[in-house]
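Limitations
The structure tokens in this dataset are predictions for the assembled complex, not deposited experimental models. Users should treat interface geometry with appropriate caution, especially where small molecules or nucleic acid strands are included. An illustrative entry is reproduced here so readers can see what is and is not provided.
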Amino acid sequence: MTTTALKARKEFGKTLASDIAHRLRNEIVTCQLKPNESLKFDALRLSFGASFTTLREALTLLVAEGLVVAEEQRGYKVAPVTLEDLHDLTHARILIEVDLMRRSIEKGDDDWEIRVISSLHRLARIEERAPEDYASNTEWKATHRQFHEALVSASGSPTLLAVRNSLFDRAERYRNLSAMFRPHPRDKVGEHRALMQAAIGRKADQACDLIRSHIQTTSNNVAKYAAGVISAG
Amino acid sequence: MTTTALKARKEFGKTLASDIAHRLRNEIVTCQLKPNESLKFDALRLSFGASFTTLREALTLLVAEGLVVAEEQRGYKVAPVTLEDLHDLTHARILIEVDLMRRSIEKGDDDWEIRVISSLHRLARIEERAPEDYASNTEWKATHRQFHEALVSASGSPTLLAVRNSLFDRAERYRNLSAMFRPHPRDKVGEHRALMQAAIGRKADQACDLIRSHIQTTSNNVAKYAAGVISAG
DNA sequence: ATGGTAGATATTTTCGAAAATAGTTGAAAT
DNA sequence: ATTTCAACTATTTTCGAAAATATCTACCAT
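Predicted assembly:
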């Protein structure tokens, strides 16, 4: 009853499988589990303390999100990273995020404005406290995610929002990868503030242009700094 | 050794779970399994002849595709159909399909043209043979799917194509639902032919307009004829 | 040496039982 | 009649063993 190290423990989701999916997702996005790394059941069982079938269910979830690939009868592995995939991903993100942004600006109410403003404020504070390496800060990453989520949260499109979330995770993995090699993070606080102002000011065209170039330049930076570790595709 | 009725049999995918997902998907899309119907494991085990965990994996897959919803600790059920969901779905489909169409027209090579032309030809032949009720014809449905898939198949975007496929399934369920109540299917052969001609003729703007209105009017028809069986949302 | 095959090993996939959780029924108390 | 709570039933969720499949190794034939 006292051994908790190997025993699976629920923290997040209600079921063990969704909880393990959550933890696995995190390890993949942060590249603790490296691209192409094969996910053997014995090893996973050891580190997550769950049984074959529970792990299998968690992996199935991540396959659907594009973070894991299944080679039938030959197991699972962490999805590879390639330049081609990065381009594909970036294109899809821009298409969807721009649409969500425009409709969020149309429909956003007072609560939406508050969510956007307060998450940006929190983000700025974190950057003030640790101006050097905020991009590798776990708290910054979570808040950064919340800010972008807040921007599109009034769009009223559950389907596209769900897709957007998967794509955001996949993109964050690439960002983390490039952060390992990039000397210093570029100053993003300005971009985020401009985004907030355009959104709250209901300047839809401007906000869409900003989000488009925000995603595009981030992707370009990843391609530049992570080129070494990304396979040719 | 001779009893095959209850024994699970692989037909499609390599693993039993993906095969069962395929069969379940089909039953949901064709509304043999009705919206909101609860998917109890005992019943599924009986009709699919697989064990709890295998079924669970298949269901997890379908949850990711939006055809099944999971209520944690309280089982699975067929995703509900609502007017709100139909609108959301239609919006997402137009956004994605238009983008894929434009890029397919840009990049499409000779093989692409052949795929588009031959699938349209097959579709027209089926409609000739059974002009009355082709829309409830299984072969027509499969060919119709292939035609639309062919149109966007040269886009070179695995991510958006995967999303498109899920959305197509979800939309087909609504189409099947409305077909139960619609007196006679409207004549679609003209629309499909125009779509083909615009695509092959590399008239991108025109093709995008056509696909947009094709999806939109289909959705409007569904809303009109299936309003009775679709919950208010 | 090379290519192929049989046996042995490693790994994934599937199963049905056991544990955990939700839902239901019915008796006792107010 | 209504509420409460406890025992019971129904159902989902998790487990580890067993079956199926792939991979590796050693040996033989060419």
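Some entries come with short summary sentences. For this one: Residues 83-107 of chain A form the longest helix (25 residues).
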